[in-house]
Amino acid sequence: MKSNPKQLLALSGGVDSAVAASLLLEAGEENQLSAAFLRHNIPCHKDGLKLLDAAEADARRIADILSLPLQVINAESSFGKLVDYFVTSHLQGETPNPCAWCNPRVKFQELFTLAEDLGVEQVATGHYVRTGLHKGEPVLLRGIEQSKDQSYMLFDLPREWLPKLRFPVGAMDKKRVRQIATEKGLPVAAKKDSQEICFIPDNDHAAFIERATDGDYSGDIVTTDGTVVGQHTGYFRFTIGQRKGLGVALGEPHYVVAIRPQSREVVLGRVEELEVSEVFARDANWHVLPSTEVFHCTAKVRYNSPPVKAEVTLGTNDTFQVQLEDSRQGVAPGQAVVLYDGEVLLGGGWIEGNEGEKTAAGA
Length: 363
Known about the structure:
This protein is an alpha/beta fold. It is built from six helices and 17 strands.
């Protein structure tokens, strides 16, 4: 009788997970590896399901070429929760981060549930992140290629999952990954990286939200001194830091510096009014438990922003305050602030306010 597979790989239909599968098989995991594709069935527009079907077709082709057992998981219900979060966050005036929210609550949760059913000991993905040890405990480390590092998106994974994770491409750069895919004859070697949210492949967030909700979200566009300079058809169409597509001309560059859902106002300011040096976060998740109430580290306030030196002060009820050594622009409620000690991911939380909003950690 054939033993159960010992590793489960998330196969998305992209080049990263395809190469991850190839590397695991090359390491001698033929009889210990199986794969899973998560199907969410969320039609964001008339061609949406065609794009989703294409991803599944690519995953099936890769599995066939590698002789890899593949299970397709119907995760429509779980992804429905992700859609609810995405819409609700926008309507609360936040800038949601669906990938960071999805990973612990949908994607990895589905994978670990299946892994338990199969008796699988480890879960692998094609994320650009590494595993390691910090003071003898399992941790996540930033990916080798800084521009592709995805550790930020995994900060909210439960600490108890860390020993069970594997990331075969985390120690490689993208060029090498594509080279391996070409050498192995994988059909997705040149497939473009997705830059969109998986359930909004046309990248039209506003249209998606309009279809998912009812109500009047129109209102005034104002400057920071309260002057009304225009109107908008929905505040969810705007994000903090946005400059283009504001629908008003003020003679000099202005940016969205605040969104006020209660009054339905979108607030514009000059670039210096975007600067934030103090960030407050809720729902802290720690991979490395803090040993002091105040500590120094580096912090990322956006996925694509570089880390900046910071001082962290713990609050009550899983909150914390981050004082940035150098201010950052575009810090938005709903995004994550993620903390590092060098390459080690310490943990993070969800941004709920900044110095301009007079919020206090633990308040």
